[in-house]
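Quick question, first post here. What does this chain look like in 3D?
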Amino acid sequence: MITRHQLTRLIRGFEMRKWALLAVAALAVVACGTSSSSGPTTGSTITLGAPLGLTGSLTKESTLTKQGYDLWLDWINAKGGIVVNNVKHPVTIKYYDDTSNANQSAVLMQKLITEDKANFLLGPYGSAATATDAAIAEQNAIPMVEANGAAQSIFNQGYKYTFGVLSPANKYLQGVIDLALTLTPRPASVAMLSADDNFSLEVANAVVAYATTKGMSVAVFKKYKNGTTNLTAEVQAAKAVNPDIVLNSGHLQEAIAINKAAKEQKLNAKLFAYSVGPSTPDFIAALGKDANFVFDGSQWTPQVKYTPAFYLTVAQYVAAYKAKYPGLGDPDYHVAESTAACLALERAIENAGSLDPKKVRDALAGLDVTVFFGQVKFDARGINIYKPMVVEQIQDGVHHTVYPQDIADAKPMYPTPAWDQR
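> Answer (accepted):
Ran it through. Tokens below.
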């Protein structure tokens, strides 16, 4: 029988061995965390916040935005997360539906910061919502990297915490005019139709001014209420001046409405080009063969030729998109620019070596990196004025890059045949 004295000694011995083993385990954990040869450890999860118009008038564009975010999310988490000082931080994106309402987007952005404790922010779809959300990001001193608000008015407020990876609104249709100057017969007159939101008016005013400097006349400049889908009167006004070029500055549903009305009213022009809409698969799905011949200015196409510093090449990106979203065809520029926003934030966090919002903001301000989407670099206002846009055209139901010529995969189909000759 074991005496009480012997039992006490056994217990003490067990306790000493237990604590010794725990100490060894603890030292092993510390060693793993500090050794350069054993690789990064796993740290806390980084939460990104993004309100999107998952219902409402901007559902299609917002869905493309989410696809771009989620494509990056899969990739970064497959690697274990964003590496900060040899610690891998997995990433999650918290989404809310802002119902395509700019004011609601701002309310939800504040909720993401206050209640969900989002570390950093990704932009919504559209310049209106981006403008309201930028004010929230600034008030809370939380960096927001956005990809779908191109209005320069967003970046003229003196904000320090909002960064846009996309080319600004004034560039959207400029390439179409440059392309037009190379065509025969050379178009000489323009009819400009535009929604009345900030983004659309910036696009319209810029291209009207640019066309004038290139010797073209602006025969009519007609504005309509943002979101309008009955645009017969505007198309009739354009038809009355018999323009060589019909331009529309608006969004997807408005572009579809303009094209339908042009066919109904037999508005014929040598060239049709719309700021937003034709690049999306929904434009072709809604219009079928009537979508053919339409041009648009595009932030990105699968034909661009950039050498990325990290992430995927252009071809790899297209393949990754098709694998994740089978049956949807190539990604459009809304998808690509949304992924680029995530890449910019990722690299800034890595460069900062910190999750501190101020340090990441400073790293974003100094960022200059090329990814599959193109150069990502911000001017003092926070917008990317360094990446050029391209021009694409729908030909036989397929998007083709037609300008600049050095990256084009097809020649422009021009002039556009009359509606009764198609």
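The longest strand covers residues 217-224.
The mean pLDDT is 92.
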